[in-house]
Design a protein that fits this description.
The complex is a heterotetramer. By secondary structure, chain A is mainly α. Chain A is built from five helices and no strands. Chain C folds into two domains: 98 residues, no CATH class; 147 residues, Immunoglobulin-like, CATH 2.60.40. The model of chain C has no long low-confidence stretch (mean pLDDT 91). Chains in contact: A-D, B-C, B-D, C-D.
């Protein structure tokens, strides 16, 4: 079977049962999977971008196609939410600083940076709650999903974005759990999460501009 | 519904049936439906899209939403007792609705709640039967030539417009009624509601494009009361 | 096995081409003023695509004939010119074809879609609905009455949703289930969809265009031959799609005037 | 590598127990086989539906015994109603395009062989991989549920054009809950495909073995990689489109429904939407979808052909670049499906040109295949036959594309059987030939048993001749002007065409029946087939370096190192006329690749 193949330099001999070999292999595997998480998150960002491009070009087509588009005054709370989401990006960066830069970096089990991570999580929650408040505010004005094309797009875009933010918070929650439990943290996983998290802020800014723009 | 209710309902029905069938002493309402004003001119129907039907009508047939007769009479008006008579169980006979020459025969079909409705296709082409019910369940089925009749029934009283989706000119009406006291006015506009036990009744006349009119009638015994309905016709 | 494959492939290619070459299955005779351009374009494309089809299939068959039947360890070789000639051939032959068909061959498209209808063209409104076409002529006043979707009453033959009680222009509008037009006269057709997407196709007229709900399109054409032609729907529109059709009745000017007079009398 | 990772996060242990081994397995090979099985169920269902349609078209008054039990309303007395015909048509299209042509060549074989061919132990994200299959399976169940609801399956075709698909039950039977199920199913399918494509891309980028540079990847790996990039973009657009459609149908929004529609005498409450918006979004997905089906098949065919010819292609690089340009161009041509939809006529021309341009890379690929045959030492087994048949089909289906790419010809051919002939040839049958070739080629590797060659050849001949008999006449019908999607031919001039229709139906019934030979061969060989050696076809790529079937972690405890380009054939190697990718020996002589 595999014995006919040359073994890789630097790898332990191909003996299936030795625990050392299994552990080394598992390590190599886990690292390659973490490696992949980096490109995985970029690919995911690409796909999500494409979806939102589809949504927003649908918005432009719909806006241009008919005369029933009346512009929506966005609830003021959206701007506060924008600040919140960008603050969450900043606190994420602060946590990176606390975890990977300086002395704390040496101590693998230290819980440094978990405070910043928790704050990021809280700000993320605050953002979603803020979006919820914006929906409540609109619906109290009698603007529901089906009221007008602009309210339809408003709900579709903000809900889709909020769901993606919640997805990011799941990853964030996992990081927090690792950190609080003193578990080792992979830099790759951390960075993948941070790329996604910053992307959410940028995506939101884009959506806000699209929703504000009058054609 | 409890067993008691079922029993009471059955008993009431039994009584009602025995009373209605009790020939002597029962009265009749009869009369005539007319219109005043100018009704819309019936339009001829062009069936060239369906040659197998078109050739069954050497002279083109016309629209049947308003069918007039001599002396300003109105045909195809459903006259029925809308209040005063008890609900009745359906008869065992079925109400037949035929599609022939891309026309509904009859144009207006009156039958009772729960009564078997039998729809058959005598044409060489597929028809589609789409009763646009609002209170009852709406359905939409096609009937290719050579397929068995569609059997159905309705649970609630309703005036249901019927259309064929394949042939847009085919329109008709199902009048689903609660009791057996109904009549569809004939070509001379006359109708007759026999076998009415003494009592106070509300008589309703329904015309598919003019809507409905009602009158209260009291039947004292074995008498025949004549009433008339006059619809306001519109030229457009 | 290889030789058998080659023979079968050659037979398939030739049998496939036979009905095309002999015009066994061809579009019906064109009756429009613009259709000849489409027909020429079709013939050109058929010749080029046909050559490409036969060439590729026969070459494939030839190579399979010649190089199949594997003997163990037999030496293989490559076509001396390598991949470059393939790429060059594709660019030169197919590229020219693309240019020829894509750029110079668009006359037909332009003649249908890039020209404006003549000012004196006869206006006809075509309405597609599940599952019939109806046509409307403006009548003696030359004006179409406005449409009111809520007034549509098919059982009463009000297919367009006209409101003659309130709209004077509607009272003389002629509505018909067939499309009668005078011969050699340009027709400016206004297309309106009542419910879902439909399409308007007359094979002999080389005209096909979708009805898009909410988007009233227009099209113009001239028929050159008297006769009755089928109008069919080519866009999936629901269960009666297969039976959605009407007739185009191309009449002489006198017959058309007579037809119109009868129709006006019927209103 | 970070120092923080002294402990492995999880040790990838062999799975235990039937459920984890065969059902909720994280193993890409099991998932690949699951996709294959799903595609197999879908393809036979789809084929059965096409039988019913073909039968009904030519014998409309002959009841099909037993059909009334499948649908009492749709087929009273065994006679198919017009709406049930459209239901069959819609479900046939949806099953074939999504659950067969996307699943079989791409998801099934890609899952199984992409990691092995690049020397990886598994996909980058095995959990996502499992989720993507089960999501797809759920989408399949949701779609099939439409057969069993009283409303019946939808009748708006696999393209689900709005507003027919958007206004609900008024527009016809099957358009209430049936259409809802369709839209939900496709949305779920998109999610599953996105997960799968993400996995393919990340795996190809990150998990290649030592020495496996991009240019050393086998052509089929390249095809799967390019396809997953296309799929990522395409499904990312279809998903929002489906969400908007579902909202129009259930929440009363008006994205696709304009004002003033009167459907079945009901004035619709919507206003201002744009039906063309759906068409744009759908075809932005829909045209690339064609390449999602055909590129993996083209890659597989290249891979098999090289092995059968015992020599490399004239240029693998040119094929790969051509595939990339096809993928790129596929996003600029969607409008050619909409020439007659009332777009600006100038954009018709703008879409026509890139469409015609796609012919160039496609021709390059074809010429390289055919040209590479020159001087070959061609083996004619079942896999090879199907690969060669693929080329023939690809050419036939490709040339008819020439017609439809031109708006002026589309004026006549749009909506006719010519279109049906074209896409069945190039997207349907050609892609399926790729799947058949792959099955005969890799079955031994996947199951440990070889398939029966005689049955394979019989299957090939019946299918090859049969499909030409079915789909070539479609082009003729189209030229005459026979309209597609008609449940029966009541048109006046259809009479003379009926013999041709009968011929097609008989050919379809026979060709369909021949597929049972294949099914039998699959099942029989799985259990009774001779044991498969590790490298039955003397192949060079990494899948032939592992046992048949490969162990759960593919390469045992070794990590393969790659020394060569993938196709070292026609050389003097220690094992014959080839050198395997992971063998360090140097090639002497041979043909330039």
């Amino acid at each position: 079977m595999s014995t006919t193949h040359p073994s890789v330099v630097g790898e332990p001999p191909a003996l299936i049962s030795t625990p050392v070999a299994a552990l080394a292999r598992a390590n190599a595997r886990a690292s390659s999977a973490a490696e992949a998480s980096h490109s995985g998150v970029w690919v995911a960002i690409f796909a999500i971008t494409m979806s939102f491009v589809a949504f927003t070009s649908a918005l432009f087509v719909r806006e241009g196609a008919s005369g029933d588009w009346t512009h929506l005054t966005l609830p003021t709370i959206l701007y506060w939410n924008t600040l919140t989401l960008f603050a969450a990006s900043a606190t994420f960066e602060l946590s990176r600083h606390a975890i990977f830069v300086g002395r704390e970096f040496r101590s693998a089990s230290a819980r440094s940076g978990s405070g910043w991570l928790l704050l990021t999580l809280a700000l993320g929650l605050l953002f979603v709650a803020g979006q919820f408040a914006a929906w409540r505010q609109l619906s109290s004005q009698g603007l529901y999903l089906a009221t007008s094309p602009n309210s339809s797009f408003f709900y579709v875009l903000t809900v889709a974005h909020a769901l993606h933010v919640l997805g990011g918070m799941l990853a964030l929650g996992w990081l927090v759990r690792q950190r609080l439990g003193g578990q080792p943290l992979r830099r790759r996983s951390f960075e993948s999460t941070s790329i996604y998290w910053h992307f959410m802020a940028v995506l939101w800014l884009y959506l806000l501009i699209v929703l504000r723009t009058k054609l | 519904m409890t067993v008691k209710h079922v029993f009471l309902a059955a008993f009431a029905t039994f009584v009602a049936v025995s009373v209605t069938t009790a020939g002597p002493g029962s009265g009749t309402i009869s009369g005539k439906i007319t219109y005043e004003g100018t009704p819309a001119k019936p339009k001829s129907i062009d069936m060239s899209k369906e040659p197998s039907c078109a050739k069954q009508h050497p002279t083109p047939i016309t629209t049947e939403t308003v069918v007039t007769g001599p002396g300003n009479s109105l045909a195809n008006v459903v006259v029925y007792i809308s209040a005063g008579a008890p609900d009745e169980p359906p008869p065992s006979t079925s109400a037949n609705f035929d599609q022939k020459g891309c026309q509904y025969l009859p144009h207006v079909l009156a039958f009772q709640v729960g009564q078997e409705l039998k729809i058959s296709n005598d044409d060489q082409t597929s028809h589609n039967i789409h009763p646009l019910a609002k209170i009852n369940r709406e359905w939409n089925k096609s009937q290719p030539p050579g397929t068995p009749p569609i059997i159905d029934k309705y649970d609630k009283a309703e005036m249901i417009p019927v259309k064929c989706n394949i042939h847009p000119w085919m329109h008709g009406t199902f009048a689903v009624l609660k009791n057996s006291h109904y009549s569809v006015s004939s070509d001379d506009g006359s109708f007759k509601l026999p076998n009415l036990p003494p009592g106070k009744y509300t008589v309703t006349a329904y015309q598919e494009s003019y809507g409905e009119m009602t009158q209260d009638v009291v039947i004292a015994g074995g008498e025949t009361k004549t009433i008339s309905f006059v619809f306001k016709a519109k030229p457009y | 096995m290889g030789k058998f494959f080659a023979v079968v492939l050659v037979i398939i290619a030739l049998v496939s081409a036979y009905p095309i070459v002999t015009h066994k299955y061809a579009p019906p005779v064109d009756i429009s003023t613009h259709g000849h351009a489409i027909d020429e374009q079709l013939a050109d494309t058929m010749a080029e695509a046909g050559l490409a089809f036969l060439g590729a299939q026969l070459l494939l068959a030839f190579f399979i004939w010649k190089f199949s039947g594997r003997k163990e360890g037999e030496k293989v070789s490559a076509i001396p010119s390598g991949a470059k000639i393939m790429v060059a051939a594709a660019f030169i032959f197919v590229g020219t074809e693309v240019l020829a068909l894509g750029v110079f061959g668009q006359k037909a498209w332009a003649s249908v879609y890039f020209t404006a209808p003549a000012a004196d063209a006869l206006q006809v409104q075509a309405q597609a609905g599940q599952f019939a076409f109806y046509f409307r002529y403006p009548g003696p006043d030359g004006k179409f009455g406005p449409l009111h979707p809520d007034k549509i009453d098919e059982g009463n033959a009000n297919f367009f949703g006209l409101d003659p009680a309130n709209d004077v222009e509607s009272r003389d509008d002629v509505v018909a289930a067939e499309m009668a037009i005078p011969v050699n006269k340009e027709i400016h057709m206004l297309m309106h969809a009542k419910d879902v997407g439909h399409s308007f196709f007359i094979r002999e007229l080389r005209i096909q265009q979708d009805f898009v709900p909410g988007l009233d399109l227009s099209l113009h054409f001239t028929a050159t031959k008297i006769g009755k032609y089928e109008i069919v729907c080519t866009q999936l529109c629901g269960l009666g799609h297969y039976n959605m059709k009407a007739y185009l009745n191309v009449l002489s000017q006198e017959d058309f005037d007579k037809w119109m007079k009868e129709k006006i009398a019927e209103q | 590598m970070e120092e923080t990772s002294v402990q492995p996060t999880h040790v990838h242990a062999p799975p235990q127990g039937f459920l984890w081994k065969h059902v909720f397995s994280l193993d890409h090979k099991v998932i690949g086989k699951q996709y294959y099985a799903l595609a197999l169920v879908a393809v036979f269902t789809g084929m059965f539906l096409s039988w019913l349609m073909r039968f009904h078209l030519v014998w409309p008054n002959t009841p099909i015994p037993g059909l009334q039990f499948l649908s009492k309303v749709g087929a009273p007395g065994g006679l198919i109603t017009p709406e049930y015909y459209l239901s069959l048509l819609t479900m046939h299209g949806t099953l074939m395009v999504f659950f067969v042509l996307t699943n079989a060549p791409f998801a099934a074989f890609g899952n199984y062989f992409l990691p092995i061919q690049i020397g990886a132990e598994d996909m980058a994200f095995p959990r996502f991989n499992m989720m993507s299959f089960w999501t797809t399976f759920l989408a399949f169940l949701v779609l099939m549920l439409a057969f069993f609801i009283p409303d019946g399956p939808p009748i708006s075709g696999w393209t689900a054009y709005a507003p027919l698909s958007a206004v609900g039950g008024d527009a016809g039977p099957g358009l209430a809950w049936g259409q809802n199920l369709w839209a939900i199913s496709i949305a779920i399918f998109c999610a599953g495909s996105l997960l799968g494509a993400l996995n393919f891309i990340a795996t190809t980028i990150d998990l290649r073995a030592k020495g496996m540079t991009f240019m050393r990847m086998p052509i089929c790996t390249w095809a799967w990689f390019i396809t997953s990039c296309i799929a990522l973009l395409a499904f990312a657009v279809l998903l929002p489109a489906c969400i908007l459609l579902i909202l129009d149908r259930t929440a009363g929004t008006s994205f696709f429904i304009p004002s003033g529609l009167v459907v079945s005498d009901h004035l619709q409450p919507h206003s201002g939407g744009s039906p063309l918006l759906w068409q744009h979004l759908f075809w932005f997905f829909g045209h690339p979808e064609v390449y999602i089906a055909i590129l993996p098949a083209a890659g597989i065919v290249s891979h098999i052909l090289i092995n059968s010819m015992r020599k490399p292609l004239l240029s693998a690089k040119v094929i790969i670049y051509s595939m990339m340009s096809i993928g790129f161009l596929s996003y600029m041509v969607w409008g050619h499906h909409m020439f007659l939809s009332g777009m600006n006529p100038a954009s018709g021309l703008a879409f026509s040109f890139p469409t015609l341009t796609i012919t160039i890379p496609a021709t390059i690929i074809t010429l390289i295949w055919i040209g590479s045959l020159y001087g070959a030492n061609l083996r004619m087994d079942s896999a090879s036959l199907f690969a060669l048949g693929f080329i023939s089909m690809f050419v036939t289906g490709g040339v008819s594309g020439f017609f439809l790419a031109q708006p002026s010809l589309d004026i006549y051919l749009h909506g006719t059987y010519f279109v049906v002939g074209h896409f069945h040839m190039v997207m349907g049958v050609a892609a399926l030939f790729g799947v058949f070739a792959a099955t005969y080629f890799w079955f031994g590797k996947m199951t440990g048993h070889m398939m029966n060659e005689t049955l394979g050849k019989v299957h090939f001949w019946l299918t090859f001749i049969g499909t030409y008999c079915i789909f070539m006449p479609f082009h003729y019908l189209g030229l005459v002007g026979n309209i597609r999607r008609y449940s029966s031919f009541v048109n006046d001039f259809m009479g003379p065409l009926m013999p041709l229709h009968k011929f097609i139906t008989i050919a379809a019934l026979c060709t369909g029946a021949a597929q049972f030979i294949f099914l039998f061969n699959l099942v029989y060989s799985r259990f009774k087939g001779p044991k498969a050696p590790d490298n039955p076809w003397q192949g060079t790529t990494l899948e032939w370096t592992v046992p048949s079937p490969p162990p759960w972690n593919n390469f045992g405890d070794t990590h393969p190192i790659v020394y060569h380009d993938p196709y070292q054939y026609g050389v003097k190697g220690s094992k014959g006329d080839f050198i395997m990718q992971d063998s360090p020996e140097q090639a002497t002589g041979g043909v330039a690749g």
